[in-house]
Amino acid sequence: MDIIVLLGAPGSGKGTVAGALASGNGNLRHVSSGDLLRAAVAKGTPAGIEAKGYMEAGNLVPDSLIATMIKDVVAETKGETTMLLDGFPRNLAQAEILEKMGAPVKSAVLIDVPDSIIQDRIAGRRTCPKCKAGYHVKNLPPKVEGVCDKCGEKLVIRKDDNPDTVKDRLAVYHAQTEPLIKHYSGKGILKTVDGTQNVAATAKAFLAVM
Ligand code: AMP
């Protein structure tokens, strides 16, 4: 098993691209730290109860809380699988934790989207609470408005996708997550793709460099 880390601002398309790639290739596994946390919140586990307030405020949850979840997923993923790790690491301390988990990070792919586009992307984002599929009202609409193509569930707007929280999440991204670009570039494994293209083109570019 090896790992490809996805880097990029909230709304850059990490989850959409990773989901599209993994659904067409059984050897790729999409793991989203945000999805793991939202599932824990929905279930009301102790970790979910602890994480909820941080997430609603657009802050990062404590490193140890999310690292424990990722460690479990890494441990259960074996064989030929390549893990598309979306949302972890989110800061340099988490990158070090990941390196100690023993699964090699093959590359880190930055999906590059300017902040000016991010607000619009997130304002139009709709999410399936059941199967986690992501949509956008203009760029990636479902076949029937407000309904998931894949499982028929009613789509929702994520609580932390409101404009005020998005501003805070972008500030957290620039302060804490962006230093990872330099970190992986220093290791010689950083790749960058233009995330302003449509999903298919971004996914194709991602596959070509990963
Ligand atoms: P995402 O779905 O990746 O946008 O994550 C949603 C929220 O979950 C973030 O705003 C954080 O509150 C939390 N979160 C996700 N991944 C991490 C992480 N690696 N470290 C800390 N908090 C995280």
Oligomer: single chain
Overall pLDDT: 96
Number of DSSP helices? 9
Q: So what's the overall shape?
A: globular
Radius of gyration of CA atoms, rounded to a whole number: 16 Å
Biggest pleated sheet? 5 strands, parallel
**Secondary structure category:** alpha/beta
Q: Care to describe what's here?
A:
- The chain has 210 residues and is of the alpha/beta class.
- The protein has nine helices and seven strands.
- It has helices at residues 14-23, 33-43, 46-56, 63-76, 92-100, 115-123, 163-177, 179-186, 199-209; strands spanning 2-7, 28-32, 82-86, 105-112, 125-127, 134-136, 190-194.
- The protein has a five-stranded parallel beta sheet with strand order 2-3-1-4-7, with helices on both faces. It has a two-stranded antiparallel sheet with strand order 5-6.
- A hairpin with a 6-residue loop joins strand 5 (125-127) and strand 6 (134-136).
- Adenosine monophosphate is lined by residues 10, 33-34, 37, 54-55, 58-61, 66, 87-88, 90, 94, 160, 169.
What descriptive keywords fit this protein?
210 residues, alpha/beta, 5-stranded parallel β-sheet, two-stranded antiparallel ribbon, 7 strands, 17% strand, globular, binds adenosine monophosphate
Write the layout of secondary structure elements.
Layout: E1 2-7, H1 14-23, E2 28-32, H2 33-43, H3 46-56, H4 63-76, E3 82-86, H5 92-100, E4 105-112, H6 115-123, E5 125-127, E6 134-136, H7 163-177, H8 179-186, E7 190-194, H9 199-209
Parallel strand pairs: 1-3, 1-4, 2-3, 4-7
Antiparallel strand pairs: 5-6
Helix pairs in contact: 1-9, 2-3, 6-7
The protein binds adenosine monophosphate (AMP).
Adenosine monophosphate is lined by residues 10, 33-34, 37, 54-55, 58-61, 66, 87-88, 90, 94, 160, 169.
